[in-house]
Amino acid sequence: MNNTQTTLRRFTLGACALALGLGMLQAQADDGALYGPKAPKGSAFVRAYNASSAELDVSVGQTQLKQISPLGSSDFKFLPAGSYQAQVGNAQMAVDLEAARYYTLVSQTGAEPRLVEEPPFTSRQKALLRVQNLTDSTLSLKTADGKTAVVADVKPDGRGDREINPVKVGLALFEGERKVADLKPVTLERGEVVSLFVTGGQGKLSPVWVKRPIDG
């Protein structure tokens, strides 16, 4: 092989390597656009749900969750596991966040903020309905006619889960046999967790579906 052929071969190999490297960088950039930055190992995940009637700002350590609309939620943000001081509106609270766990900070009018754990869901075939009962009553999620329980007998300050097939469903909230509220129909996608946060008390309950917000 002469010098010209050697130089050409080296140039071709270098160009291929550069193209491959750029392709990998582009793929990583596309992944970042789709999924956001990847959380480092040992991270905890936290979001906020605003059960009040005014816009809410939340911070957990240096992590900011800003301008959360009434009856709305932020998306999850990751931060190193550990102990933090959280600012929820005008209230402060200490929180302990464990690695690889998900949490929701809940702000309610006239009540102290709450930290609620949200166990992750890994199925890609089913959807998950979750009831987060932050009231003083035992509640059940049923079909609107009350004949079929979907998530039954969730105790006060408790949580109940049910895996279901992806579907658009209309359900109702019951206390025993008494219907508390008809709920807005909700569409469930594969791999998605949809949580029904129920706040309030003394017969004045506020059930709200909380899904991860969609950007754009």
TrEMBL record:
Gene Ontology molecular function, alphabetical: transferase activity
Signal peptide: 1-29
Domain of life: Bacteria
Coiled-coil residue windows: none
UniProt KW Transferase keyword: yes
Keyword list, A-Z: Alginate biosynthesis, Periplasm, Signal, Transferase
Main location class: periplasm
Functional pathway: Glycan biosynthesis; alginate biosynthesis
GO cellular component: periplasmic space
Keyword Transferase (UniProt): yes
GO biological process, one term: alginic acid biosynthetic process
InterPro entries in UniProt: AlgF
Localization in the cell: Periplasm
Family in the record: Belongs to the AlgF family.
Protein name (database record): Alginate biosynthesis protein AlgF
The species this protein was found in: Ectopseudomonas toyotomiensis
